[in-house]
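Appendix C: a fully annotated inverse folding record. The material below is reproduced so that readers can follow the format used throughout the book. The structure is listed first as tokens, followed by the designed sequence.
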């Protein structure tokens, strides 16, 4: 059902620029109205300045018009069921709901599906800042 999202994440992973960690990651986001945006991790020689696949995908998502996120797929070449890092959980939660599905993948497809709320319980919310 969400296999196409897995394929989009896997195709994005092939474009990762990860010469330092050699840990390519791909992520794909489907909006509530069906658009798909993908991204890969991008590293730089000053290591902390690189960023994650989820963050690249979120940039494409916002520039493409945003809207709510229905589901996300994440894949790493060297780790089955990679999960978004802490910072990316907060970034994804900005545009996702607690019930939004996060698909964890290996090279064959989705192997486990969790929710945004599973990954970031008691997350900081920005309502009061608006
Ligand atoms: N990375 C991601 O792109 N997403 C994750 O969810 C975990 C980590 C990247 C960051 C860095 O380029 C490499 O994986 C190793 O940490």
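Designed amino acids, in order:
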């Amino acid at each position: 059902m969400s296999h196409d999202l897995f394929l989009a994440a896997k195709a994005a992973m092939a474009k990762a620029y990860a010469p330092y960690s050699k840990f390519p990651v791909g992520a794909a986001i489907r909006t509530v109205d069906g658009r798909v945006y993908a991204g890969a991790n991008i590293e730089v020689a000053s290591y902390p300045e690189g960023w994650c696949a989820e963050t690249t995908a979120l940039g494409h998502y916002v520039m493409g018009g945003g809207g709510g996120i229905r589901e996300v797929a994440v894949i790493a070449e060297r780790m089955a069921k990679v999960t978004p890092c802490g910072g990316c959980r907060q970034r994804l939660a900005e545009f996702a709901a607690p019930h939004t599905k996060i698909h964890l993948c290996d090279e064959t497809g989705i192997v486990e599906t969790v929710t945004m709320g599973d990954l970031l319980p008691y997350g900081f919310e920005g309502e009061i800042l608006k």
